[in-house]
Amino acid sequence: MGTLAATEAALVEGIDAAQMLANVEQWCAINTGTRNIPGLASQAALLADAFAELPGEVRLVPAAPVEAIAADGRAVQIEHGAHLVLSVRPHAPRRYLLTGHMDTVYPADHPFQTLTWLDDETLGGPGTADMKGGIAVILAALKAFEAASLVSPYVGYDVLINSDEETGSLASAPLIAELARAKAAALTYEPSALPDGTLAGARGGSGNYSAIVTGRSAHAGRNPQDGRNAVVAAADLALGLKALSGDGLAINPARIDGGSANNVVPDHAVLRFNIRPRGEEDATRFAAAIGPLLREVELAHEVSIHLHGGISRPPKPLTPEAETLFELVRKCGAALGQSIRWQNSGGVCDGNNIAALGVPVVDTMGVRGGAIHSPQEYMIVPSLAERAALSALVLHRLSGGE
């Protein structure tokens, strides 16, 4: 086990666990499903007030335009909430990026809306772990870091709390790229990979696609031979995509929209699917295979297919630079009496986007908890202060502190 220097002990002693919990309870009382724009606006206003306690400029950045495919194959614009950015000492030569997200997977009409104490140390509720608890960790860690007497004017950071992480960060991807540029390191506050605090190491990638199939309608009884069935073609494409899965590439055909009355040969369909490449070579293999598969289905069914979408989360390998950052986190944990380990994960997050820009990142610095994306989501409350101390110490040592 490592030890804390006197300055490091002072750094973590002032962390206010009660205030952290109060923040989480206040923030989780607001529904912030990704499509709940008013809820996200209310949340952003509270976060702007909270992060204004830190030095620097707080601003709300409008979401980038995002196009999606409707059930009828039309391209439509999707509205997103604004993103919160705090910039501290923007001209410092050594700077970090800390990221979190204010949105959750629970829409405004979802039944899971309230907080419940499951036992003396476990709080259940929407967003407790994923990741309003993580936002509380960011704020408390930075307040502790700024209170230290050895904060260097040559060290600065940006904080990004986006509003669309749960749907792939398409409306914040340009902002992530802008803020990650030239950063020495990044920390992202997704909950730990396991309730014991295990971090996520390497991650696979993720891409979402819509295949728009256009056929030809006809009467299903009088002249079906004149029709070109778009739903059947979409189903054939789904089987072809599933056959591409394996050896580091998982493909999930998730939904087919299309068709009308039972006595009409359907002339349109939209097949939606997700891909999960384990590494860059798997993404490359998919890119090489999808074109020939589309042409094969087009020829077999005499339809046309337009593919919309792409890989929004590139695979995140554990690079030597990332391993160095993980080791620093492990040593800081040991000095605080926290056992830190990591394992590879099939999930994705904004850490994928950051790593793709060449910035070392640890992306599960948030609270310990579990059952995320379900009505059983919970946060282990003592981990609020634990993780805030860990982040404050990591930032301190990254900045040359003893």
UniProtKB/TrEMBL annotation:
GO molecular function ontology, one term from the record: metal ion binding
InterPro entries in the cross-refs: Bact_exopeptidase_dim_dom (IPR036264), Pept_M20_glutamate_carboxypep (IPR017150), Peptidase_M20 (IPR002933), Peptidase_M20_dimer (IPR011650), Peptidase_M20A (IPR050072)
Active site: 103, 165 (proton acceptor)
A Pfam short name: M20_dimer
Domain Peptidase M20 dimerisation: 203-294
Keywords: Hydrolase, Metal-binding
Superkingdom of origin organism: Bacteria
Family annotation (PANTHER family): ACETYLORNITHINE DEACETYLASE, BLL0789 PROTEIN
The name this protein goes by in its record: Acetylornithine deacetylase
Lineage per the UniProt record: Bacteria, Pseudomonadati, Pseudomonadota, Alphaproteobacteria, Sphingomonadales
